[in-house]
């Protein structure tokens, strides 16, 4: 089962905390908003932490299925 | 706007108008199309699925599948008719509701029966009031003409006078902003009076107005449903193409002899649809297809069939039925820059990549239009165009990026002129693409 991160762009306020925790999977754009890449399984624990630590609860960890 | 003519067998939604030459009252409507079938229910969903009807609001989603999803919800559903038509270059939904309101309302009533809805809401754009800052719900137009909301209310009253409606219908005027007619924005407006999109899922068909499964479809889509219920899927498929069956309304403007709304089978080549509106009145530089979230076509693509798949294969998007013919004498870069500035001003102000990204792209285009072209500018713009799509709560930024990227492709040669000029000689002409006035 693979997982992916998703941002609720309405809730995200560009704190950038997620990119600090997960630089391998999350980039910030020029305005400081996250650009999410694939999350390899070994990064799952960190991804969970990023989700829990996001100050606006804007990060979601979802099962990766085609929408 | 006028309504153009086409060969009779390819005119369905506008057939009544062509026969009458005026708005169809309830009586006229029944004479033209006959009464809708009394019981359609689940059979209607199957008929719509078999018909292959896709939504006419721009996304091209299969309508039958949407009906089935809404019907599968446990709670009583809501039917929303999206007639807000936020695209500045579109007039088809207004034209349709003005000349054949009962076709749209029949479709909404039939759909409500099929999905088990207890309420129908018709959403139109609020129109400019007399400058008194009045409630948009009761706004009257500056020119004194009836608002679209009034036109629809009058049609609803006609129906109620003839026979009590099986499902209550009401009209609501949403704020006149581009993004307010996006489907989750309509749900948000109806629930909380806030016409800004919501984060999805849940999508409206799962959980929409009041938490109920909600069918949001374009006004024209309902009119096709009304005819499928009467004549069946085989009839519907008797024109158009196997994967894009039926007819569609197109709003054709710019430099054509008879700008207005025409009806043509899907798959009709772009140039042929322009001819239904009188054809180009000047040499063309490009055609904008699909409105301000759509794509520019160079003149050598006028033979392209108007189907989603043909457009996709050419790296373009068909979108809603909108064609704007741009004359050779216009500056496509300046035209695109104006539209992008307007699109940037239309963000609902919620999502970073849209709130910051669209004004940034618009500013880059303003530089291009002002002949301040540099490699650095191109590099920055390319990066922005690749990084913004898919990162808003709604698809507004995706449309703006699609529009901007196609402008770079189609006006590439003219951009090379901008790179070496002090100013663009073409920019002296009045603009062709319409930008709504603020009110
Ligand atoms: C920014 C934006 C504006 C939209 N405006 C309209 C509109 O004015 N009318 C419309 O029917 N759909 C509009 N849509 C599409 C709707 O969200 C929705 O997909 C559509 O109403 C569904 O109807 P259909 O399935 O019949 O096409 C818009 C979408 C976006 C992203
Ligand atoms: S930590 Fe949360 S609010 Fe901050 S950038 Fe990441 S998603 Fe956005
Ligand atoms: S993507 Fe833009 S228009 Fe859509 S909800 Fe976010 S801010 Fe509003």
Features:
heterodimer, A: 67 residues, alpha+beta, Alpha-Beta Plaits, two-stranded antiparallel sheet, B: 439 residues, alpha/beta, Rossmann fold, Ubiquitin-like (UB roll), de novo design (two linked rop proteins), 3 domains, four-stranded parallel β-sheet, 16 helices, 10 strands, disordered N terminus, binds flavin mononucleotide, binds iron/sulfur cluster, 4Fe-4S (chain B), Nuop51_4Fe4S-bd (chain B), Nuo51_FMN-bd_sf (chain B), NADH-ubiquinone oxidoreductase-F iron-sulfur binding region domain-containing protein (chain B)
What does this structure look like?
The complex is a heterodimer of chains A (67) and B (439). Chain A has 67 residues and is of the alpha+beta class. Chain A has a single domain, classed as Alpha-Beta Plaits, CATH 3.30.70.20. Chain A is built from two helices and four strands, in the order βαββαβ. Chain A has helices at residues 17-21, 44-53; strands at residues 3-7, 26-28, 34-36, 59-63. In chain A, strands 1-4 form a two-stranded antiparallel ribbon. Chain A is globular. By secondary structure, chain B is an alpha/beta fold. Chain B is built from 16 helices and ten strands. In chain B, the strands form two sheets. A six-stranded mixed sheet of chain B has the order 1-7-6-10-8-9, with helices on both faces. A four-stranded parallel sheet of chain B has the order 4-3-2-5. Chain B has helices at 15-20, 26-33, 41-51, 63-72, 92-99, 101-115, 148-162, 183-192, 219-236, 270-276, 308-313, 332-345, 352-369, 375-387, 396-410, 412-420, and strands at 2-3, 77-83, 117-125, 169-174, 214-218, 247-254, 260-265, 284-289, 295-297, 322-327. Chain B has three domains: 8-236, NADH-ubiquinone oxidoreductase 51kDa subunit (Rossmann fold, 3-Layer(aba) Sandwich); 247-327, Ubiquitin-like (UB roll), CATH 3.10.20; 332-428, de novo design (two linked rop proteins) (Up-down Bundle), CATH 1.20.1440. Classes of the chains: A alpha+beta (67), B alpha/beta (439). Flavin mononucleotide (FMN) is lined by residues 55-59, 61, 82, 84-86, 178-179, 181-183, 216-218, 221, 394-396 of chain B.
